[in-house]
Amino acid sequence: MNKLVILMRNSFLFISFFIIMFSLGFLEAQKVPAIYVFGDSLVDVGNNNYINGTFAKAILPYYGIDFPTKKPAGRFSNGKNAADLIAEKIGLPTSPPYLSILSKVKNNNKKNVSFLGGVNFASGGAGIFNGKHDSLWRSIPLKEQVEYYSQVYEQLKQQIGASKLQNHLSKSIFFVVIGGNDIFDYLNSMDLQKKNTPQQYVNSMASSLKVQLQRLYNNGARMLEIAGVAAIGCCPTLRLKNKTECFSEANFLSFKYNEELQSMLKEWQLENKNISYSYFDTYAALQDLIQNPTSHGFVDVKNACCGIGELNAQLPCLPSSNICTNRQDHIFWDPVHPTEAVTTIIVDRIFNGPSKYTSPINMKQLLHESIAKSLSPFNFLLLLGLVVTCYYQTKTI
């Protein structure tokens, strides 16, 4: 009897070990392989540095003052931005800017470059609409970013084949942060205001975004993190329009756009049922920090840390600007963009946030859902059988 008990215990230990190794191996195989980023200055990691003739570049002091290199790094921030911090959450390096990769290919005469590790297509100043092509503030609008991605998709398909590529992309995150500049454009254009009511304009924004999301889907995107527009009327540059208080017209546009965006995403998912997405309510998250600053460690919710003039917002952050001594207690880094401290809280909420800020799920749940979907019926039954076997082994010992 003792020998039988020992044998059964040894069997139990062996099966337990097998289950653990199987589970760990499976989870490792399902790890997010890449992040593909689309958007504006909130997630640009240096693409604009490679656009000739544009002033929309974060290349001057004091940008990057809190970045690991302590130098300007193409981020419109004092430190890391959301693209960096999301990558850290997932355990990946920051996806490199697409134009920097093209530059290296051109300068080093490299023909075969892999984009499997992720790419960042975002561009400071970009919008859902075509934006500023002919001015000194040129950026890469979303349509053009998606076109760049389509070229990457075709190159990857040639490199590894359509089946392997789809498996890779279905486990990758597509991170989209766009829309704020379109609202700035509407507020600054009498022509746009004459042609569109606010509701018509935000409807057009949402429908135009849907077209680009569908293009991403057609080229392999299945798992998306999509951020709404923040309460941009509370940024320092727009507070100047309302005696240092939040500019309600801008916040109204942001709020209405986010409503349309959420409605569009629900509709889009019904049309493409193998899509998983997480929407983040940037508006509510930023408002919480502005309305309850001390509970989050902030002191100044109105002034830019770096800038010139009233609220440090009459001119952008320049080498001659005033700069605050404690970036950690400011909501805004420059007249438009948040500090790294704010972005860190925002990214924490994107990843782990409650339904107050995320819907229908947060990013962490999005990743878990992806793993569950990719678990084949055979593997599921095998894992279930091993668990049941272990259970009955313990009951009989």
Automatic annotation (TrEMBL):
This is GDSL esterase/lipase At5g55050-like. It comes from the Eukaryota. GO terms for molecular function: hydrolase activity, acting on ester bonds. One of its GO terms (biological process) is lipid catabolic process. Keywords: Hydrolase, Lipid degradation, Lipid metabolism. The gene is LOC101491772. PANTHER family: ANTHER-SPECIFIC PROLINE-RICH PROTEIN APG (PTHR45648:SF106), GDSL LIPASE/ACYLHYDROLASE FAMILY PROTEIN (AFU_ORTHOLOGUE AFUA_4G14700) (PTHR45648). Pfam families: Lipase_GDSL. Belongs to the 'GDSL' lipolytic enzyme family.
